[in-house]
Amino acid sequence: MLFRRTISEHFAAFPAAIDSLDDIREFVRAAxxxxxxxxxxxxxxxxxxxxxxxxxxxHGYLFGPGRVRLRVRHSxxxxxIILIDSGRPYVAEGRRRSIPMIWPRPAARVDWDFC
Length: 115
Description:
Helix content: 25-40%
Radius of gyration: 15 Å
Strand content: 25-35%
Order of helices and strands: EHHEEE
CATH superfamily: Histidine kinase-like ATPase, C-terminal domain
């Protein structure tokens, strides 16, 4: 359990808007600098977060405003980046939703193991 104990944890909420991407990127970058990740790994995670947030904004909040919440947490062995939104859920055309939706729902979760 020693490797799972949280060393640092950062929370933030941002408007679900493309204009917020710079602020979101800076928040995640600052949190990731506290981890032992290499620059290349940090750049890859920043790209993944940016893509996830862009998808949330374009598809979940197409018809109205909203917020995206982020949590960046790391232990000695892992980094977790969790994005949570309450935007419109995606349902494939012609398909019924067969499972209940959880609100707010995690939009994306990225775990990075150091080991």
